[in-house]
Write a structure and sequence with these properties.
This protein is of the alpha/beta class and 126 residues long. The chain is 45% helix and 18% strand.
C-alpha cells in the first residue's frame, strides 16, 4: 500500500448495477476516497466485516440479499454496527427518505444521483 493510501477513507459501494458502481467509484476516487465494491447485500456484509469501511453506500433492490436486510445484518453485528450506511436508491417517492431513515440508514441519496449533492452527503459522514 502506498503511503498516500494509508490515510484515505474507504467507501464500500453495494449495488448490483455495474454502471452505477462505476459511476460511484469514479466519483468517490476523484474525491480522494478508496473504494470497495459488492454486487449484492450478502457480499456487502461479508466485505464490511472483513474491511470495516468508513462508509457504505447501499442500493435497496439487489439480488441474493436486499439492502434493507443487509443493513439489519450490519446493525446486529457489533463489529459493523457503527459503520454509517447511506441508502442510494431509485425509490424517490414522497416519504421514501423518511422510510429509509426509520430503518436505520443515516441518509438517503435518490437515483439518478445529483453529483454535487452526492459529494455533499458523503462528506457529512467521512
Amino acid at each position: 500500500m502506498a503511503d498516500s493510501d494509508i490515510n484515505k477513507k474507504t467507501v464500500l459501494i453495494a449495488d448490483d448495477d455495474t454502471k452505477n458502481r462505476k459511476l460511484f467509484r469514479v466519483a468517490l476516487q476523484s474525491y480522494g476516497y478508496k473504494t470497495i465494491e459488492a454486487e449484492d447485500g450478502k457480499q456487502c456484509v461479508k466485505l464490511a466485516k472483513e474491511t470495516l469501511p468508513d462508509l457504505i453506500l447501499m442500493d435497496i433492490q439487489m439480488p441474493v440479499m436486499d439492502g434493507i436486510t443487509a443493513l439489519k445484518t450490519l446493525i446486529a453485528d457489533p463489529a459493523t454496527s457503527k459503520i454509517p450506511v447511506i441508502a442510494v436508491t431509485s425509490y424517490a417517492m414522497k416519504g421514501d427518505r423518511e422510510r429509509f431513515l426509520a430503518k436505520g440508514f443515516v441518509d438517503y441519496i435518490p437515483k439518478p444521483i445529483d453529483i454535487k449533492k452526492f459529494k455533499e452527503v458523503i462528506g457529512k459522514y467521512i
